Amino acid sequence: MWLKLFFLLLYFIVLFMLARIFEAVVWYETGMFATQLVDPVTLSYKKLKTILECRGLGYSGLAEKKDVSELVEKSGELTQGELYSAIKKEREQTEAGDASTTHFSGEMHFYELVEDTKDGIWLVQVKTLTNTILKQYSAVA
After folding, report:
1. In terms of residue numbers, what domain contains 83?
2. Which of 15, 23, 60, 96 is most deeply buried (CB count within 10 A of its CB)?
3. Rounded (to 5) percent helix, strand, coil in the chain
4. Is the overall model pTM greater than 0.85, yes or no?
5. What per-residue confidence (pLDDT) applies to 141?
């Protein structure tokens, strides 16, 4: 009985030490603790929108920074690590390609971004996959 309890305690101590080591590695690479909480009110509107996009939440009806920061607060605590990864992801997306190009994954994605927001002019180019599939099929046959 005491041996099982000892191994359970040892297991939790090892997990705790590993978590601290990983946090020290993140601190060494970025200069900040990943688990440190961030106040959403201090962030810019653009960063708040990036956080909401990473969390998969819509913000199309919210025009003021106050409303967006309240939505971030209601959706959960914001850590420094989440903020860092969201900003890094946004930078990678803007560097990878043109930010004004959107690729729709389906009908619902189209309605979510174009029909529901109606905040600008969209030029939509529809490409079918039938030509690509036929070319691939003829190349295989």
Report:
1. 32-140
2. 23
3. 65, 0, 35
4. no
5. 45
68 and 85, same domain (yes or no):
yes
118: helix, strand or coil: coil
49 and 78 share a domain? Answer: yes
Beta strands in the chain (DSSP E): none
- Give the three-state DSSP class for 57: coil
Q: Which residues pair with 37 in a beta bridge?
A: 79
Distance between start and end Cα atoms, the chain? 68
Q: If you ran DSSP here, which 8-state letter would residue 40 be given?
A: G
Cα–Cα distance for residue pair 109/9, rounded to 1 Å: 49
pLDDT of residue 73: 85
Res. 105 pLDDT band, cuts 50 70 90: low
- Do 117 and 59 belong together in one domain? yes
CA nearest to 100, candidates 124, 129, 64: 124
Residues 1 and 62 in one domain: no
Q: Which two tokens stand for residue 90?
A: 């946004």
